[in-house]
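Quick one:
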Amino acid sequence: MTSPTQDKWDARYRDADVAQASACRVLTEFAHLLPEKGRALDLASGLGGNARLLAQYGLDTEAWDISPVAVDKINALAESQSLPLQARVRDVEQSPPEPESFNVIVVSRFLDRAHVPALIAALRPGGLLFYETFTREAVEATGPADPAFRLAPNELLKLFSPLRLVVYREEGVIGDTSRGWRNEAYLVGVKTC
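Output:
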């Protein structure tokens, strides 16, 4: 039996080309911070653009998503490209990752504040979190309409304050909004203990 959420995402991914899925900005810009080896997770992966990049860097990668359609497409692509990548159907809101299970976790365009402590706990010591999602201060109508699924100003910093901050960017609506990077915030943090 499927849920309305699963049905929604299955419908979105059914005709999508998994080969066109790209990694989020924070991961592509700061991929040089990735470790040479370890376990990585692309949480709420969609079509797995982040997972593919992590696997291309040689990390043993898992992609978790609620959509079996997306998971099947990711696994087929990973097999065809011989990538160290396994996608799994997993409702991350019901089943967050286990403590100290990953060296790298990437989350893009997904926000579940209740599971932030579980994400932090899921990082191994020295583990990196790459997080990027939509903000309430936006100059375009992209992303979710419900403000509950968007970050308040500086909220990402507060949510992940137990991590040592490595990178942060959030431009909001300050200055010339036709320039810069708007509508989202991103963070890279490291677990120090």
